[in-house]
Amino acid sequence: MRVVLVPGSTTSTGAVTATVLRTDPGGTPLADPVEYPDLIAAVRTIEEAEHPRWVWPSTATVYPPLLRAGVRVQRCHDISLTRAILGMRVGKPSPPAEEFDDDRLGLFDTAPVLDPLAVATEFADQRATIGTDARLDLLIAAESAGALSAAEMTHTGLPFSTQKHRELLEERLGPRPTGYDLPARMQELAAQISEVFGRTVNPSSSVEITEAFGRQGIELPSTRKWFLQEIDHPAVPLLLRHRELAKLYSTNGWQWMDSWVRGDRFRPIYVPGGVVSGRWASRGGGALQIPKTMRSSVVADPGHVFVVADAGQLEPRILAAMSGDRRMMAAAGDDDLYALVGAEAFGGDRAKAKVAILGVLYGATAGEAKALLILLRKRFPVAVEYVEQAAKAGERGEVVKSLLGRACPPPSPDFYSHGDAHARGRFTRNFVVQATASEWALCLLADLRRRLAEDPDGELVFFQHDEVVVHTRNPESGAAHVLAAAASATRLLFGDTVVRFPMDVAARETYGKGTS
């Protein structure tokens, strides 16, 4: 059973109406649309009785208000995300949807009222396009489940100690400034920098910094960190420290905390499929770029811990499983793939094995990487050939696909006359592996979400590429859920494979400091 759900207008009582249309799995309507005076009540009733797969225009638009009303659903088909995947497969990237996905907005404040029959028709067209392609069907299901997880994690929030973060900011920056003033520590550093140069210099201005060094006979090709570090000058450590504090102040300072931390929970906006490889992005809050300096502020609730788990050496293992290279698959059956490959091809040198494998994945063909690649190709020819064929396809301007069928973007219109073939080859070489790694992670996330829905002790609070964080009162069950989900994802994508996808699992009271 599929239930198409389209939000309607807001009534005088503040409720939002809804239209529900039941269809078969292929999208053929089974009855006439039914109008409901209250969307929240309708979804709650239908979900509790039937647990259908909801079909709606966009999870980012429809689901957050439901979550705020205490309603969660098991499954959905996200029309918008599916449109993007199917469109890319025929060379028609979808423009970013104008959706609201910020839980600070009111109920459907910016959601347009859509025609339910039009939504149902697009769903039927999508199902017809997917047809009997089981892999593509799995990709669509995983992408939609990821969208549910994203909305739920924003709603739940990542436990965050505002007190600890204020203490961190005050320790490093000084008291919170007022108006347009900069923090005291930054002002002090700016004064010291100007004193060293003998005149007022704005440490945030690359032009002024370059001119200041130039007046002292030092020519700077750039003010980037690695150029400055090569210079023996008393201003350099001051400039680097000022830059570090400026980044903390602008990126994760008091204003950031005012905007994104509510109720001692960090509530960013996740964007599933925000990267062409299927990786997530974030819109505001910097969810996927939590710097180490502030991870000590991510503190579990009393009686809880974080179960932090990440997949080790994920992309090389994906390559081994995708390519079917028996020797690499055997190496990937161990906890340390690099060590086994090092033993197989590089005389036991793990570091060289890592450089060679990453060179294969990212197209490094110069210097030491080139010589190591030759050795790797001799020992693991099938795996190396797999990505090299993807690179050659990209160089020809072709489109490549992941294991489940996510397509890379087509080349730009001027590619054949002015495009960089080698650059596109490097992109497609990595795309086939990285996109498949994203699919494995999405399948893990979907299965983990299902398991945690039945566990009153745990909740999913963070996901980033190949890492998940469970906030739980029972770290043993939380770790067991993650490991079971990883095994499930592996079976879904690769069946009964010898390739292992080990998870590094640790229980921590804070995100940045382990306790066990």
Automatic annotation (TrEMBL):
A molecular function (GO) term: DNA binding
A Pfam family: DNA_pol_A
Keyword Nuclease (UniProt): yes
Domain DNA-directed DNA polymerase family A palm stretches: 291-476
Catalytic activity line of the entry: DNA(n) + a 2'-deoxyribonucleoside 5'-triphosphate = DNA(n+1) + diphosphate
Gene Ontology biological process terms in this record: DNA-templated DNA replication; double-strand break repair
InterPro entries in the cross-refs: DNA-dir_DNA_pol_A_palm_dom, DNA/RNA_pol_sf, DNA_polymerase_A
Sorted UniProt keywords: DNA replication, Exonuclease, Hydrolase, Nuclease
EC code: 2.7.7.7
The protein's name in its UniProt record: DNA-directed DNA polymerase
